[in-house]
Amino acid sequence: MTAFLRSLRDKDNLRGLGLISPSLLWMIGLLIIPLIVVMISSVGGRDPDGNVIFGFSFHNYLRLAGYNYDTPCGDVPPPCFDDLYLTILWRSLVLAFQTTALVIAVGYPLAYFVARAPAGHRNLLLFLILVPLWTNFVIRVYAWIMILRTQGVLNGLIGSALGVLNLPFKPLEMLYTPGAVLVGMVYEFLPFMILPMYTSLEKIDSSLFEAAADLGANPLRTFLRVTLPLSMPGVVAGTILVFIPVMGTFIVSDILGGRQVILVGNLIQRQFLDARDPAFGSAASILLMVMTLIVTIFYTRTFGFGEEIASA
Amino acid sequence: MSNRRSLWITLASLLVYVFLYAPIVVLVVFAFNSSKTNVIFEGVVNKGPCGPFYWFCVLFKNGEVLSAARNTMTIAIVSTVASTIIGTMAALALQRYAFPAKTFSEVSLYIPIVIPEIVMGIGILVLFSALFRWLNSAFGLQGDDRLALGLGTVIVSHIAFSIPFVALVVRARLHGFDKAIEEAAMDLGADEWVTFWRVTLPIIAPGVLSGGLLAFTLSLDDFVITFFTNGPGSTTLPIYVYGLLRRIITPEVNALSTVWIFTVLAALAISQRVQREA
Questions:
Q1: Is residue A126 a part of any domain in this protein?
Q2: In A, residues 51-80, which contact B (CB 8 Å cutoff)?
Q3: How close A144 comes to chain B (CA, Å)?
Q4: Total structural domains in chain B?
Q5: I want to staple B238 with a disulfide (CB 3.0 to 4.6 A). Which of A138, A180, B78, B211 is the partner?
Q6: Model ipTM value
Q7: CATH label of the domain that carries residue B140
């Protein structure tokens, strides 16, 4: 404390503190304290009105892990093992990995194309990737309802194409399936992957490709040994920007999955609205946060921290 | 690079662009649909004095939409101005000065990037509802005087998630800043304020402007944080649309989306022009 007070005599210290204090106030008041409140309420319980009763018990976490203490699991009377929540967690994790992998696969060629385009065209091409982002998130999901529903645009197109060939066609049931949720997720988060990948790819000196070719590398080898390693920082940054929000989102699964595809985000949201059990919802959020942190730390340890996040 | 390979990449890129724009085209086209259920396009609507723009007229007579639009703009403007100022201050502090708790401040600014938005949203919700419940009973507030979630809580939360992004962008701009220019101004007799207003700020202005633009887009696009922090009377357009999606969807939603898209594009075009002239 005395060291702190002494340091305030320094004019630079005082200025720095003065400039940082509003943002510190906001970060402590609206991030750190809320996180602590969530942690505290996750070990609490609920009253009949849906308010949190503060206490100290891990029963919310036990419930998430499958310990069902009040309702029967099929024929088995409580307490019993119920894998409902574990299935939801696992489904969310798998979907987040699938989305990230697909977004990399779909986005990489485009990022490469824009990075290698003539310098004068690059800004326009990038701008075109960003425009969909500026329409609203909810509106973008809604557009996919119109495309995917049974009498929707896609079935209409397939139907008329097959009609020309005189083939029979039964409209596909696409909406409210896991596939629809995956498509929606890829669509929502694609630009967040393309931008950092572009930043990395654009930095690569094209003489490196020539050097690789001169040294006898074929195109595939050049890609695997030169292009891909040098673009990894962008891929890593993009993965962080995509994986974390996908793990937590609930709108895409809510709207495109109907009631069929329930993710952690939906589970949490319901505890605060319909089910009115904020303590259980808090425990699920803490679990979600820990899961994303573990994956992110493991991933950045393996591939290095994505410095390109700043440039995105 | 061989031509055939670059042809494949071009073709793949073209397909991705189609994927990105097809939903938007569908949205806009269906805003002119004559079918009220809006499942199949049954031809261009031509009803009332507005003709093909029938759904747009319905939209502009809808009081709920207008108040949601007003809320959205109020939240976006207030939170952008506040977070741009606070974020720029933070960037200056972190880039220029050594001070106690610097590492802590730096780490705290990364939290919103690595934590799922829903966790932050429910955290703020739980905090505010507990705080308001306590304050209401402590001061015996009754009826309309009671503190509740509303525009204020949404704005304060939007400021919170925008600050880190503004700080990040402005810091990048400050990174290549030549301090000698400021020293020259001081040598020529300018005091610190004059130096800041006449030298530093004009140089970092593009960074501040793009930070502000980012904050504005984040606020307009936000659904999750708003969903958990809004209350009666502070519904925003995304929240309103979400509510509609769970009921019957008429082409009115498409008309709303179309107006939204073109408004944002116009705003972007204007800001690009302003930035180029600056």
A1: yes
A2: 51-52
A3: 6
A4: 1
A5: A138
A6: 0.85
A7: 1.10.3720.10
